[in-house]
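Record format v2
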Amino acid sequence: MKLLETTENQIYTLVDIGNDAHFSRRAKSMGLAAGTKIRVIRKQDKMPILLFAKDTLIAVNRKDAEGIEVNINV
Amino acid sequence: MSKIALLGQPNSGKSTLFNALTGSHQHVGNWPGKTVERCEGSYKYKDETISVVDLPGSYSLAADSEEEKITRDFIIDGTADLIIVMADSSQLARSLYMLADFSKLDAPALLLLNMEDVARLQGKQINIQLLEERLGIPVLSFVAADRKRYESLKEKIYYALKNTPKLKWDKCEDGQEFKWIETLLQDVVTAKENQYSMSKFDKIATGRILGKVTACIAMLLAFACSMVIAAPIMGVGTMIPQFFTPLLQKVMDSFGIHAFIASIVSVLVPNTIYFSFSMAGFVFGVNFVFVFLEDIGYIARVAYVFDGLMSKLGAQGKSICPMIMGFGCTIGGAAGSRVIDNYGQRLLTIAMTWAVPCAAIWSVIPVLATYFFGSGAVFVVLGILIYMILMITIVSKVFGKKLSPVEDRTGLIMELPPYHKVHWKNVLYTAWTRAFDIFKRALRTIFLISVLVYLLTFSGSGRIEDSVLYHVGILVEPVTKFFGMGWQTFMAFLSSAFAKEAVLGVLNAIFAGDGSLLSGTFEAKALGVDSSVLATVMPTVISKAEALAFMFAVSFNVPCIMALSSTYRETHSLKWTVRMALFYTGSALVISCIIYHIANIFL
């Protein structure tokens, strides 16, 4: 599923960061890469998504979140 | 002389480190041909001078942006004898990314693990010795904001410079960065397992509506605090001309020195010192508050809630801070723009902040508007606010193309650091060095411009008709009339570029014949203005259309010389400061022209 479709307080694993090379490199430098475990902290309308990954609270804007593919961790 | 370079992501504490290492021994410029800031400084340790280059903040060495290209090339170049790679102790798994990227290049390095205090609070322990053994380079646990720790850092650097240690751990392969970090960190970090939960305050601070409201309140409070901190310093400043001007005047008179020279000494010099003093006081206040807000981690929240709005303008969320500050004082806006880590965006933010009318304008416009429009003044104020938004948009289009190239703009992805305890010494020290720096440099700029204004406004007889400005005003009046201003308003318009309060002082000198142009301009803040005369005489000479055009022209003219001078200080680019000034003067005349001609039809 897409990062935009996730629910708060769930844990997911990143599968794909999307096609924008520029963005995916930036995401990687912030600790987000395929295989990274994330917890969605806060999703508000029209606001970037807040997630917790690798000990850090990270904000990701909605447009790029559309391109990020995640798997739910059970 | 040895050269070291600082490498780290934005928010890694790199600029705190740079400032603390070099203090006032720094010079800031641009990388040749680039709109990227180059900070260089030096410090002495054991009789050796070590020069420090602050590499532009970049997220990686991928060469995605101008900053990253410069940083990468600089490291490959081998100009530096040692690279200080910075990482965040509280989140090593993420922040060692830069080191992983760096390992692909071959350069001597020292690893600095910043934010040791935060990591400790979170119950994390790092086996520095093991890490050092594995990497083969010196590793130091550190708190950049804690000034007591710098001796040990300097010592470590001193010895590292003698050995030029290089990484002995395997080079990281492309795409394997996190695997590389994971292997490296095995058994290095021990942490208590604790689940993150968002604090109540953070829920408010990051809320879509509440977050913005909180940020605006925080900025207004920040302005109020800066004023409280600055007020005593400015108060001392005010006393300089109050005390010295009459005194010097008397001395000059007793020696029979010509009025032309006498006023330079008695009016110009004390006022220059006073202006620089007030400016420094304010810069101190603003920096104190902003460094504090940044130190505790709140600015990142402001950046988060305002990113959507600001990124449309080519700026970043943090840009809202200087812009709101601009309602108080444009100098504060320029000084506050330091929170923006990208040089181009910082320039763009300052350019947009200029469009925000400052408190001095807000003190002048309602007064003038009431003289001409009575209760209709409300609509004038409203019109100015609406035009402000338009002007900000125009500026973002005109300057954004070059300062924040569209291809360099990425969607927001940022870290929201945990709230920290404040390091007061660091806050004080940073605010002090910045204020002192601006004081030193402002003296010269303000004096030069003051001399120019002085030459234009001086009249031997004290009558306005004998000043150069009057003759120039009369001469160009046919032209300025087209832009909607007669000579009186045009003179006030020109003087508004000196100090916004001067508008009333100059108009007072012209219409009430009260005081000379010189004192109207220089002592506007100190002199009372006889408003009853202004209110009755002015509307008989100036048409409503002209008044309206004039008020817009003044509100959106270049800011006062102190703001101009602090813009030059913050951007250290004469080119961009002049470009902005020309653009604002030009657009102020254009808006004045448009409003005048339209208003003439209706009023």
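The two ends of chain B are 71 Å apart (CA to CA).
The mean pLDDT of chain B is 89.
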